[in-house]
């Protein structure tokens, strides 16, 4: 079923979960066992992130270099097939512009159609190691809006209609000059055919509510799914803002800082904060809340138990 329909028909709120494909060497059983604890909450779908291929230059004896593919993780397609097969639920593979030509993207869409995947999250993708700015493939797409257009064109030609989600940043994407411009660019993705939006993680719900108001004022009327992640260690109060260009509210950062030598206390503080955010979002009428699990189930399972 399409996520747009699920959001319309939901009689009660449900959790949305995002997992990262495992590193090579992890078995299918290990992967599935790491997801199994979430199944108690009947999530109707699971998102699977996609990671861009990286390359290494290996010196040859003649002084030249060989460009070698470094793929650290199992592909999102393989992970999606394993989840579908085991849990009989929808999967939402992320599809990215980064490192992919138009042909490669089309070929991935064929794979997803083959698997019966109905929902995709279309993104530009992160930079790879050593890249300061995103560099598109010479025959690829620069912005996620172009990728959404390509998926729409595929859907029309193949008579197979994907439901497409896109990413958004309540605290602004780090490259955008201001939030207003970023929201104008978000609208381009919706105008290109995106059916719904999933946000970057945030730690202050007020920021999310204000963002939704601004989106509405800009003419964005598709559903916006809030994204949450519980802090699990004191180090994350500096790591996450650096990695994701987000703010940690003073109240939360001070509490983590004051307990930085007590791992368990920090874990509990992060979990409690996230659970309160989730409760408040549901009370404000959100039909689903997206959790960035990053391969860790325990704290999120506790949060789901308290809220769903
Ligand atoms: P875009 O929408 O293309 O925007 C990128 C920047 O360009 C923004 O600053 C925007 O304002 C600007 N822009 C957009 N259109 C235009 C235009 N026409 N003209 C000028 N400027 C424009 N990354 C991964 O690699 N793999 C994943 O699986 C993954 N999953 C994610 C899931 C979610 C829910 C989110 C929110 C992010 C995820 N990311 C993932 C990270 C994402 O790929 C990066 O944040 C990336 O830098 C931006 O992606 P985007 O799709 O938002 O890009």
Question: Care to describe what's here?
Answer:
The chain is an alpha/beta fold. The chain has a single domain, classed as Alpha-Beta Barrel (TIM Barrel). The chain contains 11 helices and 10 strands. The chain has helices at residues 3-9, 28-35, 76-87, 102-115, 144-158, 179-191, 205-217, 236-244, 250-258, 263-283, 298-307, and strands at 14-19, 45-48, 54-59, 65-70, 90-96, 119-123, 163-168, 196-201, 224-228, 288-292. The strands form 2 sheets. It has an 8-stranded parallel beta barrel, surrounded by 6 helices. Helix 2 links the parallel strand 1 and strand 2 (45-48). The protein is globular and about 55 Å long. Bound molecules: flavin-adenine dinucleotide (FAD). Flavin-adenine dinucleotide (FAD) is lined by residues 49-50, 52, 94, 96, 123-126, 143-145, 167, 173, 175-176, 182, 185, 188-189, 198, 200, 227.
Secondary structure topology:
Layout: H1 3-9, E1 14-19, H2 28-35, E2 45-48, E3 54-59, E4 65-70, H3 76-87, E5 90-96, H4 102-115, E6 119-123, H5 144-158, E7 163-168, H6 179-191, E8 196-201, H7 205-217, E9 224-228, H8 236-244, H9 250-258, H10 263-283, E10 288-292, H11 298-307
Parallel strand pairs: 1-2, 1-10, 2-5, 5-6, 6-7, 7-8, 8-9, 9-10
Antiparallel strand pairs: 3-4
Helix pairs in contact: 5-6, 10-11
